Amino acid sequence: xxxxxxxEKCGREQPYRLNSVPMVGRLKEELYSYxxxxxxxxxxxxxLSVKEVEEANLRCLYDLYRKQKGIVSLEYIRELPKRxxxxxxxxxxxxxxxxxTFTRYYEGYMPTHQYSEVLxxxxxxxxxxxxxxxxNKEALGSERSYEKSLKAVEALLSxxxxxxxxxxxxxxxYLLYKCEDITPLMMQKALYYIQGFCYAFLGxxxxxxxxxxxxxxxxxxxxxxxxxxxxYEPGEKxxxxxxxxxxxxxxxxxxxxxxxxxxxxxxxxxxxxCNESPWLQARGxxxxxxxxxxxxxxxxxxxxxxxxxxxxxxxxxxxxxxxxEDMFRQSCVVPL
Length: 336
Ligand SMILES: [Zn+2]
Hints:
Layout: E1 4-7, E2 12-27, E3 30-41, E4 47-48, H1 51-69, H2 74-83, H3 88-94, H4 101-106, H5 113-124, H6 126-135, H7 143-161, H8 167-178, H9 184-202, E5 212-214, E6 217-219, H10 221-227, H11 248-261, H12 266-273, H13 277-283, H14 298-311, H15 320-333
Antiparallel strand pairs: 1-2, 2-3, 3-4, 5-6
Bound molecules: zinc ion.
Zinc ion binds at residues 7, 9-10, 14, 41, 43-44, 46.
C-alpha cells in the first residue's frame, strides 16, 4: 500500500514519505507557526506537492487560527446536524440565515465572531436549540423533520438531567487523576486500550460509545470534544478520586493500561495504534491523511485484543506491559 505522487525531479510517480516540519502560515495578515507535514520523494528526496497533505496542513493552520481567535471549532460545527438530527440547509433556515450559510461553515469557511458565538451556544446548550426549533419550526417545512429533531434534542436534554455520568466519563476522569500530564489525544488511546483489553480479560466492552479510526488514531468523539481543551497545569491541586464504582477486575485493567501505555508520548501512541488491525481495517483504502469518522467495529476490536491476549500468553491484566513494550520497539524501527 505504498503511496505515490509525481516527482518533477525524477520525472515520474515515486513513493514518498511524510516528515513533520515546523511551518508558518499567513491568515488575514497575521503569521501563525504550527507543525505540518511535508512529502518527500523516497528516491531523490525532493519535496513533492500532494493535495491531501496540503489540505491537512491548511486544516492545521485554520484550527490554530480558530483556537487563538476563540472561533468555534470545525468539529463542533460538523457535529451539529448529527447532534440534533437535522439537515444542513434546514438548520441554516432555522437560524434565520441564508439557506447555504451553515453548509459553507460546515465545509470549513471561517464564521464571523458573531455567527461563531451562535454556533458555539447551539452546540453547548440543547435548550437553546430546542427554543429555536419551537420558535421557527415553520422554516423546516415538514412536520416529520421537526419531530425527528425534537426527539433528538429531548433525548439530549434528558441525558443532561438524568444519568449523565457515563462510564467512559468516569474512566476519563480516572485517567486524569492517575496520570496528570496526559494530553487529550493520549487519553483517547488509553480509552481505546481499556475498551479492548477489558473485552479480552472480562468478556465485555465497558463503553457503549463507538471508537472512530481518525487520522491521529482511535477516538471516542463525544469524550474527546469534552476534554479536548484540557491542559495540565503543573502544581494544580488534585481532588481525590472515588474508585469504589469500579470492580477489582476493571481497575486492574485500567491501571495496567495506564502503566503500560501512558509512559509513551502521544506521537508514539499514535504510531502504535495506527499499526493495529482495528484501525487499519476501519480505514480500509483511505489515504493516510484523509479525514474520516469511520467506526472501528466491535468485532474487529474484540477479535484483535483476544488475539493479543493469546499471542502474549497473558494471564493477568499486568501482562499487558509486554505487548506495549513490543509495539513500542516495533514502532521505532518502522520508517514513516
Ligand atoms: Zn524524486
